[in-house]
Write a structure and sequence with these properties.
Blueprint (H helix, E strand, L loop, with lengths): L1 E8 L6 E5 L4 E5 L6 H13 L19 E8 L5 E8 L5 E5 L2 E2 L12 E4 L5 H4 L2 H15 L1 H24 L9 H37 L6 E6 L8 H14 L1 H7 L10 E6 L2 E2 H4 L2 H23 L4 E5 L7 H10 L4 E6 L7 H6 E7 L2 E4 L1
Parallel strand pairs: 3-13, 3-14, 8-12, 12-13
Antiparallel strand pairs: 1-2, 1-4, 4-5, 5-6, 6-7, 9-10, 10-11, 14-15
Helix pairs in contact: 3-4, 4-5, 5-6, 5-9
The chain binds adenosine-5'-triphosphate (ATP).
Function: The RecF protein is involved in DNA metabolism; it is required for DNA replication and normal SOS inducibility. RecF binds preferentially to single-stranded, linear DNA. It also seems to bind ATP.
Family: Belongs to the RecF family.
Protein name: DNA replication and repair protein RecF
């Protein structure tokens, strides 16, 4: 699958442009603040229904215009061409059309095109707290599994209700009997989530290890391990009973603290290179490459899951990789459409430039492509 073309009207700093993409490499060049990320964002919104930079749709409409409109044409592997279009009207209401037909729910849009974005913020995945890594796991798994997505929503609801009850138990100890109901429900959803995460992280480990070795010329061994308090990870039943056991064991402490101290909402991922934790000891370049390897692994995971390669959006990351890492990356990208932004091609390998469609952007206008 690849994006053939995009039409952008009154979106961010664009007034009216239409451009065609190459089915493989596309490089968007422009100085700072010219609209490179805005263009990637327009593609992203077409796939996910929302921006990765803001939750306010009104910000996506050009300051001087009443509405915005973006339309992309997608070429499928089976030869069919499909269109995805969104409009944001005067009241900041957003609507989506697939092949010209209005959809009523964003969930109908998800999966129409699969996109992987690599954005400078993704370094958080390596550097920051477990929350970022859980967000990554949840986001990736939600893209490939609707069931996982609804299990997470349900789990969080039950967790909130259990936490409410824990807070009330201080004043109303007789309510303690009711906690078993919440433990049972939490452990049921929790076990499903943990089981799915375990498989995802095992797959991610194998694939990202291979990709990372490739991108680092076999010098670095990337390893990803699932960190969870559950010890018996064999199957749904073992995980569920382990969770119930721990929930019961920690009950007094949980009542004192007013929250649930065990479950998938506390899980993490340990990322190491050559056996050393990259969060604490990795160089900036190693952290960046590791984050990129994780993202690139999704290419294979999505391909295995949905049968088509996703589209890769790389925002401002190439120039920060040394020439050897860039060289290895180009081979990893051979099967996918990549749209890459950069301020300058002089840091880019000639192989990239020669194999790419170059799109020059200035002040929301396409100078040449
Ligand atoms: N709603 C909007 N209407 C008009 N202009 C906007 C709107 N939102 C953002 N902009 C403008 O878009 C520009 C930023 O574009 P973008 O983030 O795509 O830059 P970029 O080319 O990726 O730059 P960098 O290389 O610095 O990341 C800014 O000048 C900003 O003022």
């Amino acid at each position: 699958m690849y994006i053939k073309s995009i039409m952008v009207k009154n979106y961010r700093n664009y007034e009216n442009i239409k451009l065609n993409f190459d089915k493989n490499l596309n490089i968007i060049i422009g100085d700072n603040a010219q609209g490179k990320t805005n263009l990637l964002e327009a593609v992203y919104v077409s796939g996910f229904g929302k921006s990765f930079r803001t939750s306010k749709d009104s910000e996506l409409v050009n300051f001087d215009k009443p509405f915005a409109n973006v339309k992309i044409e997608v070429q499928r592997d089976n030869g069919r061409v499909e269109t995805i279009e969104f409009r944001i009207n005067e009241k900041s209401k957003k609507e989506f059309l697939i092949n010209g037909v209005n959809i009523t729910r964003i969930s109908e849009l998800l999966g129409t095109i699969n996109i992987i974005l690599f954005y400078p913020d993704d370094l958080k995945l390596i550097k920051e707290s477990p929350v970022e890594r859980r967000k990554f796991i949840n986001r990736e798994l939600s893209h490939i599994s609707h069931i996982y997505c609804s299990d997470i929503i349900e789990y969080n609801k039950i967790l909130m209700q259990r936490n409410e009850l824990l807070k009330r138990l201080i004043y109303k100890p007789d309510l303690k009997e009711t906690i078993d109901i919440w433990n049972e429900q939490l452990a049921d959803k929790g076990a499903k989530i943990i089981l799915r995460r375990k498989k995802f992280i095992d797959d991610l480990n194998v694939i990202s290890n291979k990709i990372h070795a490739g991108v680092t010329d076999q010098k670095e061994q990337l390893n990803i391990q699932y960190i969870t308090a559950v010890k018996k990870l064999e199957n749904y039943d073992t995980i569920k009973s382990d969770l119930i056991l721990m929930l019961n064991k920690n009950i007094e402490m949980d009542i004192k603290r007013g929250f649930t101290s065990v479950g998938p909402h506390r899980d993490d991922m340990e990322i190491s290179i050559n056996g050393i934790s990259i969060k604490s000891f990795g160089s900036q370049g190693q952290q960046r490459t590791a984050a990129l390897s994780l993202k690139l692994s999704e290419i294979e995971i999505i391909k295995n899951d949905v049968g088509e390669y996703p589209i890769l959006l790389l925002d401002d990351v190439m120039s920060e990789l040394d020439i050897n890492r860039q060289k290895d990356l180009i081979y990893t990208l051979k099967n996918v459409q990549a749209i890459i932004t950069t301020t300058d091609v002089k840091n880019l390998l000639d192989d990239y430039i020669n194999a790419s469609k170059i799109i020059k952007i200035k002040n929301g206008n396409v100078l040449s492509h």
